[in-house]
Design a protein that fits this description.
Layout: E1 2-11, E2 14-23, E3 32-41, H1 43-50, E4 66-74, E5 84-88, E6 103-106, E7 112-113, H2 120-142, E8 152-155, H3 160-171, E9 176-180, H4 183-193, E10 197-200, E11 219-222, H5 226-233, E12 241-244, H6 258-262, E13 266-269, H7 280-290, H8 293-298, E14 300-304, H9 308-316, E15 323-327
Parallel strand pairs: 8-9, 8-11, 9-10, 11-12, 12-13, 14-15
Antiparallel strand pairs: 1-2, 3-4, 3-6, 3-15, 4-5, 5-7
The structure holds NADP nicotinamide-adenine-dinucleotide phosphate.
């Protein structure tokens, strides 16, 4: 038996990728084997495919941090053949062969069921990005964020985490302000996904000279980090928080403790990768049930395995809009 995969190889600092047919004996030693339908493209997949970040320890490698498909064999008491499952995180696609293949073998303890009411393709349209956006919103809500308190900001709004966060927040009744570096090109789409206002990335990208600016945001889902995160920390309303999800704009922040001391603000870290499996299913179900599936489909672009090397460059240049799913049989 064999399967199709995008096999990545490394020679010195050169990374090459080829769509190949591999024997099943090449699969890693997990307890659940899956016929994969779809994977997706995330910022981290861009890093893995280009070798940036040195996330992969051994080559040849199969990337793809997300996957969804059907169980074909299982030695895990939690799963049986025929069940539709998904996997995000746990460093699959980095230190374990991932979703850029028509078969995957993984640990049953890493899997969730495909949420009720959505397809494997829609599951991957949500993917790590949408799961992270849902975790961020859950975290802000646990800290008291509610609709009606004022605008909630989403940074990097055209990207995967950003566009899913805009849509989820809007469906949950929030007033959503979308910050993007591509306002001219992306404004109409972002409004369609649920943004009430679209602002230019540059307008919130400078490190403020004063520790506090006018109170503006009832919450922030931040995919950008860097000076943008430094800026928005000074603009939070009293008691509001930022969910820091990403670093597309940089990993260094410059701030003071003043917003935390005088406005009771919070900075929450969001990690989707090693998030314990307990509670993941509920987060997935909430994301799937909250999304307007027609809108999710509208924010989805489908590519094939051979398209991935070029797509990796596109996402690292900040040029991917919405979510790109990978049809591993295409
Ligand atoms: N914490 C976690 O568990 C977790 C999970 C998923 C992703 N992430 C991180 O979250 C970030 C977004 O991931 P993604 O998959 O959504 O990537 P993505 O689709 O590429 O989205 C990133 C967006 O950030 C904006 N951006 C890009 N370069 C920028 C720059 N130099 N300065 C300011 N803004 C910039 C762009 O949006 P605009 O064009 O609209 O400005 C871009 O679309 C990444 O850093 C990723 O590593 C973390």
């Amino acid at each position: 038996m064999s399967f199709r995969a995008l096999l990545s190889s490394q020679v010195d600092k050169t990374y090459t990728h080829e769509v190949v047919e591999l024997d099943d004996s090449r699969l890693p030693a997990g307890d659940v084997t899956i016929d994969v339908d779809y994977s997706s493209l995330n910022y981290k997949d861009g890093l893995v495919l280009t070798g940036r970040g040195r996330l992969v320890k051994e080559y040849p490698h199969v990337g793809g941090i997300d996957l969804a498909g059907t169980v074909t064999e299982s030695g895990s008491p939690r799963w049986k053949a025929g069940q539709q499952v998904l996997l995000t995180g746990f460093r699959v696609g980095e230190i374990w062969w991932g979703g850029y293949a028509s078969k995957a073998r993984v640990k049953g303890e890493w899997l969730c069921a495909v949420p009720n009411g959505i397809s494997t393709r829609q599951t991957m349209a949500i993917g790590t990005a949408g799961f992270t956006a849902m975790l961020a919103i859950d975290q802000l809500e646990q800290a008291g964020m509610r609709p009606g308190q004022g605008p909630v900001l989403v940074t990097g709004a055209s990207g995967g985490v950003g566009s899913t966060a805009v849509h989820l927040l809007s469906r949950l009744g929030y007033e959503v302000v979308a910050s993007t570096g591509r306002a001219a090109e992306r404004r109409d789409e972002l409004v369609r996904f649920g943004a009430t206002e679209v602002i230019e990335r540059d307008s919130i990208a400078d490190v403020p000279e004063r520790p506090l600016l006018s109170e503006r945001w009832a919450g922030v889902v931040d995919a950008v980090g860097g000076s943008t995160l430094s800026h928005v920390l000074a603009e939070l309303k009293y008691g509001a928080g930022v969910a820091a999800c990403g670093l597309a704009g940089g990993d260094k922040i410059t701030s003071t403790v003043i917003p935390f001391l005088l406005r009771g603000n919070n900075l929450f870290g969001i990690d989707s990768v090693m998030r314990p499996v307990e509670g993941r299913q509920e987060v997935w179900q909430r994301a799937a049930s909250t999304m307007d599936l027609a809108m999710l489909d509208a924010m989805t672009t489908e590519i094939g395995l051979a398209d991935l090397p070029a797509a990796a460059e596109t996402i690292l240049q900040g040029q991917v809009a919405g979510r790109w799913v990978v049809n591993v049989n295409r």
